[in-house]
C-alpha cells in the first residue's frame, strides 16, 4: 500500500483569480474560503495594492500592502495614493519586466508574488495557518507574453512560493489539474480533452483515463498524458478588444492634432497601455503624460484628449476594467447588452451586439482554434478519438469559445463546470497521486 499524505495543497495562481484547495487524508478536495465583506469567497482576486501612508513630515514614507478584494477596497478608497496591480502573472515569463518601482522601492516579480501570497495566506486564516512542506502549483502550458521565458517564470515562482515556507514545490500543468478534477466523475475509460480558458492563457491537455485493478481489490484510475498545447490569449485579450473598439476612440485614438502646418495622428502607444493594467499607472507617472497634456491644446478634438487625461489623472483604470468585464459577462448570456463606463465627468455608453464582440475577438478565436488543433495533432487523435471534452475557466463562458468545440466534437461530448475551482482542486488531488513525479515537476 502506498501511504496517503496527511494534507496536500494545490495553489492555482491565476491571472485574474487565485484559488487554494486542500485534501486531508483520503477525503475530498476542499477549497480555502476567504471572509470578504460580501460573504465568503474562494476565488481570490490576483490583485495587489500598495497604499502610501503619510509620515510626520507630510510625505508618503510607508506602504501598506493588500491583496485580493482587500486590495480592490484599498484602491477604491484612495485611488490617487494607491498603486494597484492586477494581471501580474502576465509578465511572469517576461525578461523585459525586471522590476517595478513603488514609492522608490524596487519590486521584482518574486516580490510581488510573495507579497500577494503572504497576504492571501493571512486572509485564509486558520485553514492556512500550518501548511505542509509540499505544494502543487499550477502552471500554464504556455506562459503569456511575446517571447515567454519559461525557466525564468519558474525560477520566479520558486522564489515567491519558498517565502511562504514551502520547501518541496511541484509544478503541474493547469489543464492537467482540471483533468484530475473532471476524472472524479468518470464511470468508464475515456480520453478527455480539457480546455481551460482564463484571464491570461488558454491551455489544452489530452489525458487518457482508465480504470485498472488496485492493490486492495477495488479499482483505481490510471492516467496517461497524451498531448498538451497552449496560447497566451484569453479573457484579458478580449477585454482589450472591447476597450480598443469602444473606449479608446472616445479618448482620442485615431484623431489628429496640429503640428505647424500638418495634421498628425495622436500616437497609438498611449492606448496600448490599456492592454496591460500595470502600464496605465506607469503612463500616468511618465514623461508621455506631459505630452498628452500638451496635446489638449493642439488636438483637433480636444474634448477627447481631456477625457484621456481625466481617466489617467484620476486613475479610473479599475472602473474601466469593471465596465468592460460587465459587458463581456452580459454578452455571455445575452445577444445584446449596453456598455456603460462612467467615471468623473467621463461617460461612454453604447449598445453592443454579441456578434460585434465576436467580430472584434476574431483574431483571438483563431489563435485559440489553432492551439486546440495543435493538441489534437500532437496526440495523433482526430476529433473521434476524443470521448469527452471538459471546458473550464472563466472565459469558457464566452459562447464563441464554446462554439469552437461544438463544431469539432458535437454537443454530446461537451461538459463544463468548476469554472473557477477545477484547477486548484485537481492540483490538490495530484498531490495525493502515488505517481506524483509523473504529473508534476520540480525546478532546480
Ligand atoms: N460570464 C463570463 N463571461 C465571459 N468571461 C468571463 C465570465 N466570467 C468570468 N470571465 C472571465 O474569465 C477570466 C477569469 O477566469 P479565471 O479565473 O479562470 O482565470 P485565471 O485562472 O485567473 O487566469 P489564467 O488561468 O489565464 O492565469 C476573466 O478574463 C473574466 O473576465
Ligand atoms: Mg486559470
Q: Roughly what percent helix?
A: 25-40%
CATH topology of the domain at 7-172: Nucleotidyltransferase, domain 5
Beta fraction: 25-35%
CATH class assignment of the domain at 7-172: Alpha Beta
Secondary-structure blueprint:
Blueprint: E1 7-13, E2 17-24, E3 30-31, E4 34-36, E5 39-41, E6 44-45, E7 47-54, E8 60-67, H1 69-77, E9 82-86, E10 100-102, E11 105-107, H2 109-124, E12 134-139, H3 150-162, E13 168-173, H4 174-183, E14 190-197, E15 202-213, E16 219-231, H5 235-247, E17 256-259, E18 262-265, H6 269-272, H7 277-284, H8 288-298, H9 302-313, H10 317-333, E19 336-343, E20 346-353, H11 354-360, H12 362-379, E21 388-392, H13 399-409, E22 414-416, H14 422-430, H15 436-439
Parallel strand pairs: 1-12, 12-13, 14-21, 21-22
Antiparallel strand pairs: 1-2, 2-3, 2-6, 4-5, 7-8, 7-9, 10-11, 14-15, 15-16, 17-18, 19-20
Helix pairs in contact: 2-3, 4-14, 5-10, 8-9
Bound molecules: adenosine-5'-triphosphate and magnesium ion.
In short:
The protein is an alpha+beta fold.
Question: If you had to describe this structure to a student in words, what would you say it looks like?
Answer:
It is a single chain. This protein is α+β, with helices and mostly antiparallel strands. It has a domain at about 5-170: Nucleotidyltransferase, domain 5. Helices cover about 35% and strands about 30% of the residues. It has 15 helices and 22 strands. The protein has helices spanning about 70-75, 110-125, 150-160, 175-185, 235-245, 270, 275-285, 290-300, 300-315, 315-335, 355-360, 360-380, 400-410, 420-430, 435-440; strands at about 5-15, 15-25, 30, 35, 40, 45, 45-55, 60-65, 80-85, 100, 105, 135-140, 170-175, 190-195, 200-215, 220-230, 255-260, 260-265, 335-345, 345-355, 390, 415. Strands 1, 2, 3, 6, 12 and 13 form a six-stranded mixed beta sheet that branches. A five-stranded mixed beta sheet has the order 16-15-14-21-22, with helices on both faces. A three-stranded antiparallel beta sheet has the order 8-7-9. The longest helix has 18 residues, at about 360-380. It is globular, with a radius of gyration of 23 Å. The two termini are about 30 Å apart. About 45% of the residues are buried. The model has no long low-confidence stretch (mean pLDDT about 95). The site of magnesium ion has 7 residues, from loops.
Amino acid at each position: 500500500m502506498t501511504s496517503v499524505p496527511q494534507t496536500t495543497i494545490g495553489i492555482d495562481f491565476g491571472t485574474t483569480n487565485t484559488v487554494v484547495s486542500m485534501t486531508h487524508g483520503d477525503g475530498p478536495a476542499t477549497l480555502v474560503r476567504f471572509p470578504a465583506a460580501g460573504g465568503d469567497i474562494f476565488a481570490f482576486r490576483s490583485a495587489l495594492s500598495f497604499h502610501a501612508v503619510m509620515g510626520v513630515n507630510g510625505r508618503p514614507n510607508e506602504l501598506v500592502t493588500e491583496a485580493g478584494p482587500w486590495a480592490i477596497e484599498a484602491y477604491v478608497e484612495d485611488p490617487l495614493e494607491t498603486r494597484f496591480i492586477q494581471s501580474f502573472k502576465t509578465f511572469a515569463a517576461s525578461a523585459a519586466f525586471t522590476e517595478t518601482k513603488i514609492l522608490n522601492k524596487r519590486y521584482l516579480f518574486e516580490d510581488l508574488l510573495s507579497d500577494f501570497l503572504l497576504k492571501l495566506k493571512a486572509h485564509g486564516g486558520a485553514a492556512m495557518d500550518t501548511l505542509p512542506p509540499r505544494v502543487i502549483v499550477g502552471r500554464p502550458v504556455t506562459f503569456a507574453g511575446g517571447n515567454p521565458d519559461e525557466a525564468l517564470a519558474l525560477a520566479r515562482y520558486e522564489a515567491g512560493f519558498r517565502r511562504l515556507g514551502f520547501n518541496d514545490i511541484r509544478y503541474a500543468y493547469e489543464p492537467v489539474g482540471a483533468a484530475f478534477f473532471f476524472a472524479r466523475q468518470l464511470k468508464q475509460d475515456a480520453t478527455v480533452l480539457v480546455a481551460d480558458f482564463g484571464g491570461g492563457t488558454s491551455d489544452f491537455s489530452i489525458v487518457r483515463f482508465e480504470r485498472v485493478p488496485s492493490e486492495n481489490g477495488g479499482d483505481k484510475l490510471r492516467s496517461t498524458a497524451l498531448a498538451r498545447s497552449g496560447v497566451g490569449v484569453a479573457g484579458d485579450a478580449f477585454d482589450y478588444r472591447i476597450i480598443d473598439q469602444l473606449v479608446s476612440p472616445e479618448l482620442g485614438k485615431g484623431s489628429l492634432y496640429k503640428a505647424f502646418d500638418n495634421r498628425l495622428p495622436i500616437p497609438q502607444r498611449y492606448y496600448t497601455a490599456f492592454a496591460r493594467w500595470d502600464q496605465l499607472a506607469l503612463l500616468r507617472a511618465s514623461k508621455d503624460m506631459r505630452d498628452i497634456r500638451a496635446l489638449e491644446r493642439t488636438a483637433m478634438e480636444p474634448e477627447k484628449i481631456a477625457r484621456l487625461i481625466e481617466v489617467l489623472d484620476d486613475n479610473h483604470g479599475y472602473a474601466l476594467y469593471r465596465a468592460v468585464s460587465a459587458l463581456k459577462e452580459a454578452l455571455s448570456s445575452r445577444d445584446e447588452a449596453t456598455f456603460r463606463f462612467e467615471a468623473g465627468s467621463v461617460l461612454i455608453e453604447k449598445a453592443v451586439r454579441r456578434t460585434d464582440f465576436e467580430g472584434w475577438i476574431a483574431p483571438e478565436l483563431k489563435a485559440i482554434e489553432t492551439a486546440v488543433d495543435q493538441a489534437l495533432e500532437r496526440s495523433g487523435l482526430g476529433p473521434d478519438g476524443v470521448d469527452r471534452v471538459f471546458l473550464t475557466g472563466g472565459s469558457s463562458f464566452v459562447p464563441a469559445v464554446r462554439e469552437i468545440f461544438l463544431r469539432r466534437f458535437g454537443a454530446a461530448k461537451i461538459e463544463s463546470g468548476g469554472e473557477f475551482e477545477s484547477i486548484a482542486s485537481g492540483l490538490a488531488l495530484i498531490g495525493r497521486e502515488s505517481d506524483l513525479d509523473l504529473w508534476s515537476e520540480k525546478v532546480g
